[in-house]
Specification:
Layout: H1 2-23, E1 32-37, H2 41-53, E2 56-61, H3 64-73, E3 78-81, E4 84-85, E5 88-89, H4 90-99, E6 106-110, H5 115-123, E7 128-131, H6 136-147, E8 157-160, E9 163-166, E10 171-174, E11 177-179, H7 183-194, E12 200-201, H8 202-210, H9 220-234, E13 239-244, E14 248-253
Parallel strand pairs: 1-2, 1-3, 3-6, 6-7
Antiparallel strand pairs: 4-5, 8-9, 9-10, 10-11, 12-14, 13-14
Helix pairs in contact: 1-2, 7-9
Length: 255
Amino acid sequence: MALAFLLAEIRRIVEEIDEAARAVELPAGIRMRLLIVEDNVELSRLVANGLTAAGYESDIVGSAAEAREAVRNVSYAAMILDLGLPDGDGLAVLRELRRHMDPLPVLVLTARGGLQDRVNGLRSGADDYLAKPFALEELVARLEAILRRPGQLLGRSLRLANLVYDTESRQIFVDDQPRIISARETSVLEILLRRQGRVVPKKNVEDHIFGLEGEVASNAVEVYVSRLRKQLAEHGAKVVIHTIRGVGYLMAEEK
């Protein structure tokens, strides 16, 4: 009876998420990339649709082994982790991350809703814990709360010199005037602005743009960085993107 009720609730949530995803007109521009680890194919797909409507990109995997492989190869903003995976317990994946000092924010999303389950999840290193059934609005709110914490990626307005990037509207301003920069270049701009003054490894830039999309041309990042430099110069932005050969890129104020 409990299982039947849970499945019914999940189906209801799936329908709400799908409706929300259809109802939202998606803005152009960059979206933070998340990893969804969930073996229920329909639920994971529709959660991803709902998160897309909320402004995120998602990669989906259905097992602990795939989760480990994904985090080894892609730099994600956060992970949404189910615990009941077909090849093991999601807590084992979480503990491995923390044992290796990986700070990746993890929101556990699971049918295990008991007090001791929540305590175990948080003590294993989860940043937050949400039991199924759940509301999409709460999932998004909890995710945003995690990403707003010190050291994480979410910030509403990114500024450097006379350049401002509004992460909600995904609008770029130079000297308070709106400017148009193409989508891929905006992807590069955001990750460099979020880490301004620090070197961003080329692999992180590539992951931010492409995630698990597949084969990427070896010079793709260089091409987009070059185009971004040109567009920023044309718009009069007083910033510079330094190439740190063999390492990555650093954005700073023009001297």
